[in-house]
Amino acid sequence: MSDACPPVRIAIVGPESCGKSTLAAQLASRLQQHGVVAVAVAEYARAYYAHRPYQPSAADILAIARGQLAAEQAACDAGASVLLCDTTVLTCRIWAEVAFGQAEPALLAINQPHRYTQTLLTAPDLPWQPDPLRSHPDSRDWLFGLYRDALQAAGVPYQLVAGQGAQRQAAAWAALRRVLPQLPVF
Questions:
Q1: Which spans in 16-56 are helix H?
Q2: For the segment 127-136, what is each residue's pLDDT rounded down to a tens digit?
Q3: Residues in Cβ contact with 32 at an 8 Å cutoff, skipping those fewer than 6 apart
Q4: pTM above 0.85, yes or no
Q5: 140-154 and 89-100 are packed helices; what angle lies between their axes, rounded to 10 degrees?
Q6: DSSP secondary structure of 58-105
Q7: Which terminal CB of the chain, N or C, has fewer other CB atoms within 10 Å?
């Protein structure tokens, strides 16, 4: 994995159905309106399972983590100055621990939560939206705690993003302004 182009990397993490994909797209669009070359890096698991049955194995989770990092690098190589990463390897690590009781050493080795300029942790305060890749509708608070605890254990500061609609976007935008102070107020 190359870091030849170190853009501002924003990690957007949290439990299932907490608005990460929507938030990444909204923030990228808004940044582009302000002349920033921003890209929403999609959750690679969706592409990975597009042509496979959703029956995750430890090998699948490692492949997804590597694919997520490759997608970030591709966005960087394409000239993006801000990456809005709709999930990170941290998500793969947590899913491995939830599904298999532990993450493989190879997965732990590529989990680098400090590589992100800013981490946004999405609260599980949005209505559940069913999806074939989602499987824990009643465990989002518990999963949120796993993310929070993992970030704290790694010493990674994060900004909580909560609320509905414009309130959620404004919270995320305020966090972006901490690392991109040239941006206007939401």
A1: 20-33, 44-48
A2: 767 666 656 6
A3: 38
A4: yes
A5: 120
A6: HHHHHHHHHHHHHHHHHHHHTT-SEEEEES-HHHHHHHHHHHHSS--H
A7: N
Sequence-distant (6+) residues with CB within 8 A of 144 are: 14, 15, 18, 121, 123, 124
Q: Which two tokens stand for residue 142?
A: 């518990």
CB-CB contact of 108 with 163 (8 Å): no
- Phi, psi of 9, deg, nearest 5: -110, 120
Q: CA geometry: angle at 9 spanning 28 and 19, to 5°?
A: 50
Taking only the tens place, the pLDDT of each residue in 82-103 is 999 999 999 999 999 999 999 9
Q: Are 118 and 179 in contact (CB under 8 A)?
A: yes
Retrieve residue 155's tokens.
Answer: 């010493």
Residues ≥6 apart with Cβ < 8 Å to 84: 10, 12, 23, 24, 27, 28, 31, 38, 39, 40, 41
Q: Which residues contact 120 (CB under 8 A, 6 or more apart)?
A: 10, 11, 12, 13, 23, 158, 159, 161, 172, 175
Q: 151: how many CB neighbours lie within 10 A of its CB?
A: 18
Q: Are strands 118-122 and 8-13 parallel, antiparallel or unpaired?
A: parallel
Over residues 4-60, the pLDDT tens digits come to 566 899 999 999 889 999 999 999 999 999 999 999 999 999 899 888 888 889 999
Place of tokens 């559940």: 128
Per-residue pLDDT at 1: 45
